[in-house]
Design brief:
This protein has about 400 residues and is mainly alpha-helical. It is built from 16 helices and three strands. Helix content is about 75%, strand content about 5%. The protein is globular, with a radius of gyration of 21 Å.
């Protein structure tokens, strides 16, 4: 940790340590405030938003900004999605075939609506269409990465000089809204339709609230970690092979696929070096997934520099308000009904809330918070990450140039 030109720079080790503190603070606050528990607000969201506000206050008072080295965050993301792949069974993938296609079609249609909404609202503030597109799928469905990737081109070719600021601001506030909307949507649907899981099963991420005291042995965790590392190694090899073919995918996507392949191609009772069965859907794997996702999201939210977004408040908040209303409406009136109007559909809706305005980890955190309260939904944890971690990026890569060229 060092101070450079009014910026307090925090290294990776301290960043992870602070993220753990953020998680504990979020848990303590959620334990004290029933509203947060009732609406399944993820603990890292509660703590992360609080700390980001505190850092903004420090900047306002002293002029000192806080920046984090976030390399460990990418490692945690890979870890988490590898656990999701390991927990995926061929049976669930076959069951999720039609729902996967349906959710993908809905998501593509929603991305088109999202772009049209951003462009329309931007026009009210006399902003060009590309600026509105930054408040559409570029930053919301696409997230910070897509916004950062496209902003320089939009600034250079379309004359939007503050494109980077608009994109990052929309992505940041969209992430906040996405983190807060998934749980309440699921709670509303579950209570209104009296929904419950078809059967009680081990969760994909975390443990149920009533089982938080159950013990998991050190060998269980070590065996799960070993399985994760095997799949990550295969995922890295797959990623490098695809790059040689000209296809670039995020590392966590290929690790997700590696986990799926190993889980479904290697017999469950195949002798392993550890002497144990392959640890798919074990409490240890769910625990590691919970820790990885929680720490990742805590680091993402606590590192937001909210003070950089003030100057763009009016157009950005108007765009986001319109996007928020549309996202909630599509969730309740379309996604839930088309996906089957059952418990799995409600959990998918909490994840779609994360997709629509936030990011893949946000979608997973929303679903994790909901399932830890109400029960497992393996189908949701299969189709949502496949849609938002893989297909969305491919579709967005085609939609963005189309809208830039035609609007």
């Amino acid at each position: 940790m060092e101070m450079v030109d009014g910026v307090l720079q925090i290294n990776q080790f301290l960043a992870v340590t602070l993220a753990i503190i953020v998680l504990f603070v979020g848990k303590r606050i959620n334990d004290k405030i029933a509203f947060l528990r009732e609406f399944s607000i993820p603990e890292p969201v509660t703590g992360g938003l609080l700390f980001s506000v505190l850092f903004a206050i420090v900047y306002a008072v002293s002029g000192t900004s806080v920046e984090f080295e976030l390399g460990a965050r990418d490692f945690l993301l890979v870890y988490f999605f590898t656990t999701i792949g390991i927990n995926a069974s061929l049976k669930d993938l076959m069951t999720g075939g039609n729902p996967l296609v349906i959710l993908l079609v809905i998501t593509i249609a929603y991305m088109i609506v999202q772009n049209l909404t951003g462009i329309s609202v931007a026009a009210l503030f006399d902003l060009p269409a590309p600026a509105g597109l930054l408040g559409g799928s570029v930053s919301l469905v696409g997230g910070h990465g897509t916004a950062i990737a496209w902003a320089p081109r939009i600034a250079e070719e379309y004359g939007v000089s503050n494109a980077m600021e608009i994109g990052i601001a929309c992505a940041t506030f969209g992430l906040i809204l996405a983190s807060l909307m998934g749980g309440p949507i699921a709670k509303f649907l579950i209570n209104r339709h009296q929904l419950t899981p078809e059967k009680v099963e081990i969760l994909d991420v975390g443990t149920p609230e009533e089982q938080r005291t159950s013990s998991i042995g050190s060998v269980d965790c070590l065996d799960a970690i070993f399985a994760i590392h095997v799949c990550v190694i295969l995922g890295v090899m797959l990623n490098e092979s695809l790059e040689e073919l000209g296809l670039q995918l995020p590392l966590f996507v290929t690790c997700l696929f590696a986990g799926i392949l190993v889980t479904n191609l290697v017999p469950k009772n195949f002798p392993r070096f550890s002497g144990r069965l392959w640890p798919t859907r074990t409490p240890a794997m769910a625990l590691i997934a919970d820790v990885s996702l929680g720490t990742f999201l805590a680091m993402s939210l606590m590192s937001m520099q909210l003070w950089t977004l003030i100057d763009l408040a009016a157009p950005i908040f108007t765009i986001l308000l319109a996007q928020f209303v549309i996202a909630v409406s599509i969730n309740i009136f379309i996604v839930f009904r088309v996906m089957g109007s059952n418990y799995d559909a409600a959990v998918v809706c909490s994840g779609f809330g994360g997709i629509s305005l936030g990011s893949t980890p946000t979608a997973m955190a929303n679903m994790s918070a909901v399932t830890q309260r109400y029960g497992a939904s393996h189908l949701a944890f299969i189709i949502v990450p496949l849609v938002c971690a893989f297909f969305i990026d491919l579709v967005n890569a085609l939609l963005i140039p189309f809208f830039l060229a035609n609007f």
